Amino acid sequence: MTDIAADRARLLEIVREKAIVHGRVTLSSGKEADYYVDLRRITLDGEASPLVGRVMRDLVADLDVVAVGGLTLGADPVATSMLHAAAAAGERLDAFVVRKQGKAHGLQQRIEGPSVAGRRVLVVEDTTTTGGSPLDAVAAVREAGGEVVAVATIADRDTGAGARIEDEADVPYRFVYSLADLGLA
What we know:
Low-confidence stretches: none
Strand order of the largest sheet: 5-4-3-6-7-8
Mean pLDDT: 94
Largest sheet: 6 strands, mixed
Order of helices and strands: HEEHHEHEEEHEHE
Distance between the termini: 34 Å
Helix content: 25-40%
Number of helices: 6
Structural class: alpha/beta
């Protein structure tokens, strides 16, 4: 059995060590910041990825979901980490990927992976600033017939995204680390 408090503490150490980049940057939202939290350095890291899966699963352990995913690219490694953590625990959790726009060829699907139609799913993201990406994913899942139970992210930038997601999507919003936890507030 894993010690989730130890996993959470070690993941935070790795995030602080490897993911926080200081200097002026423009975020995907168009806003400027004096630092960037590049969680792909964590979600794709061999030591950190399993921690992400376990910590994120613990964050939403009380929710009944059968699949997890979100808008590509930030959500993809989070979802697959959770899928692998579930498998390691002898459980099943499917993952899905929401494209920024539908494909113009093949099946022309906006959501890749097992179907979300009629299924209870969790929308995830690595870092949340405005809430735009998870809101886009929520809309796509609902359009495909899935039921979004909640939105969860690793790091929340404390910019009001959680309230926006809860208000506009009418689902709970959860996060593992705040800016204060990351030493940025």
